Amino acid sequence: MIKIESLSHHFEMGKKGKKTTLPVLKNVSFAVNAGEIVSLVGKSGSGKSTLLNLIGGFIHPNSGIITINGQAVTQFSEADWADFRLNHIGFIFQNFQLIPSMTAFQNVELPLILKGIHDSDRKMKTEETLKRVGLADYHDHYPSELSGGQQQRVGIARALVLDPPLILADEPTGSLDSETEASLLDFILQLNKENGITFLIITHDHEVAQIGNRTIEIHDGELVKGAYAHELQG
Amino acid sequence: MSFKDKISFVRQNMRKNKMRLFMTILATAMGCTFLIVLASVAFGLHDTLLQDYMEHDRINEIEVYGTSDPGRDTMHLTNEDINYFESLDHVKTVRRSTTLQQYPLMSIDNYQLATEAKSVYYPAEQEAGFTLTEGRFPEQDNEVIVGYHFASLLAPTNNDNEELYDDYGLLKEAYQYDGPIVGDTFSLEIEKIDQDGAVEIGKFDVIVSGIVEQPKREWFTESTVYISEQLLTDIEAFTETTAGSPYIEYQEGPVSDERTYSDIVIHSTTIQYLQDLTEKLAEENYYVYSVASQVQQMNLLFNIAKAGLIFIGTIAILIASIGIYNTMTMAVTERAGDIGIMKAIGANPKTIKQIFLIESSYIGLLGAFFGTVVAYLLSHVVNWVIPVILESAFDDTIPEGFKFSSIPFVLVLITILICLAVTLISGSQPAKRATQVDVLKAMRREI
To answer: Residue ranges of the ABC3 transporter permease C-terminal domain (chain B) (predicted)?
Structure first.
């Protein structure tokens, strides 16, 4: 599903003429097989967020190759990335990233609108997805009228609504209490089991990381655990 | 993302800051109103002057006064010329008339009127749009039609002139002929003055079959008697002069058997062929005149004036576009978070750009719509108020139908297109900025 080969990235810091280079990822290689739940753990500043940003196409790597679902995405333009994200990747964000002026229904419906799905089909699909995440009665609620757990469920519904084969989750339980966290993790497991959705979850919480089939640990931009050589063949 | 969804998205976004939106639309509407009202003055005056030409049915006419062909009587055109004119392409009809060379006295009972008379060819007159207000066109040689004011000018013969006319010199209503006119038999009296000055009166009984429509120029008094060509021939036979002149002493030789015409007017099918026809006839030694060249010059002048005024008006819309630019820039800044989220979940940069361009166009179109409505209202007010002001300030009467301001559809269309172009240009930079919103910065944190 995801294949990363010799991926390196650095950030340039400072003003012009006095720029310094800060290496963030150093020759990283690993793979995530279809249907897996892989947890990516590491301390703050270890490079795990940068790695997810690179896989999501929000930043472009300095070197290396990223292949998702059989497509080499490294040289994608911004427009290519937009289409690719819409069709292949769902995102779950730590602070939900819902559009505050839209209701729960409208937030979930947004990817369907962007894809140009017909009005009646998308209403049906949105309702079905909201029902699936247990928010059938919260259609017309704005994000500010929902609890953190409910907002995250809206976020998950938005990620799921186009049935992507891959979901990238960034600290999905970071803003939730322990009870809601447990419920959400169960839901992720259920989605993986029933729909075969591949998850790459970034977390610093080892308990959350345990739901994964495999845990990859990153330290100072290098993978220190979980990225076995045979995985590159996957 | 479908166009309908983009519109719906834009409308949803526009509701977020209603006051700012209102002020931007107001500024755009004011710009559009200014452009339309300014240019409408040129359109109004142009229309009025053009209408003036059109009302006199002269716009597609070529007047033929005679010919400079060697060996021909300069001022007398014949049926041969008429046939030639009718054979030309794009000629609708050829009106011809001969004015009687004296004012015959038309009398009935105790009423009479000495007025102009002319023989006309009715089929051509009808083809050219000559219409009656009452009765029908003559079918017999002794039938005539009379001008609109003929009846009101018929004066009683047994009264003192002082009593008959009011202060304006018009026949008092009480003394006017109250008969039906149409169907009445008049005596048409023709004078014949021989070389010794002896006057002989010839009387011809004529029946009025119709009354001509009221002249479009209200001040114009029309009391002409239109007679048949046969009646003219009979009159000529009596006076023994061409066109019924009373003075036989000026007649050179006997009256010709061949009918000649003093006035010939060619009507072209459309105005676009008028210039070509005029030039062709002039090349063939005919003395011709048409208003086409004057109208063309007038059109050129007014078109330049319209373009100039539209250009000045466009400056007002350009000023309003600064407001649109500002509104759109603020919208992009305020919605950077939403844009970031949309891009993160797969919104194409092109879609984002289109959404903002649609939004600026929407503001422009709303401004143009309201601006046009206000401009129409102002135009009506201007057309109503200015004559009143001029009349009270200068004690001068403005002709009825005179328009200071006119808003044709083409002016509205031009305004909408200018407004749309200006708003698209002013919205393009903010729209481009929207596509460049950094997803990670917009979401305020890296994922």
So the answer is: 310-434
CATH of the domain at A41: 3.40.50.300
- Residues B307-345 have pLDDT tens digits of 999 998 888 888 888 888 988 898 888 888 888 899 888
Residues A109, B208: Cα–Cα separation, whole Å: 83
B residues 160-199 closer than 8 Å to A (CB): none
The per-residue DSSP string of B271-326 comes to GGGHHHHHHHHHHTTEEEEESHHHHHHHHHHHHHHHHHHHHHHHHHHHHHHHHHHH
Please name which of B299, B264, B291 lies closest in space to residue B275, comparing C-alpha atoms.
B291
Q: Which of B281, B261, B282, B289 has the alpha carbon at shortest distance from B76?
A: B261
Of B417, B359, B385, B389, which is closest to residue B35 (Cα–Cα)? B417
User: Nearest residue on chain A to B14, judged by CA atoms?
Assistant: A101
Residue contact A110–B345, C-beta within 8 A: yes
Q: Do A85 and B345 touch (CB under 8 A)?
A: yes
**Residues on chain A touching B345 (C-beta within 8 angstroms):** 85-86, 91, 110-111, 114, 158
Which of A25, A99, A103, A121 is the best mutation test for B, with the most CBs of B within 10 A? A99
The pLDDT value given to residue B161: 62
Q: What is the pLDDT of residue B93?
A: 92
Roughly how many angstroms between the first and final C-alpha of chain A, as a whole number?
8
Residue A69, min C-alpha distance to chain B (Å):
17
Which residues between 349 and 368 in chain B have a beta carbon less than 8 angstroms from any beta carbon of chain A?
A: 349-351
Given a contact cutoff of 8 angstroms between Cβ atoms, the answer to whether B91 and B268 are in contact is yes
Domain of A187, in residue numbers = 2-233
Complete DSSP assignment for A49-66: HHHHHHHHTSS--SEEEE
Q: Convert the pLDDT of each residue in A2-25 to its tens digit.
A: 888 888 888 888 777 777 888 888
pLDDT band at A234 (very low <50, low <70, confident <90, very high): very low
Query: Count of domains in chain A?
Result: 1
Q: What is the ipTM of this complex?
A: 0.87
Residue B17's closest chain A neighbor by CA? A101
pLDDT tier, B376 (very low <50, low <70, confident <90, very high otherwise): very high
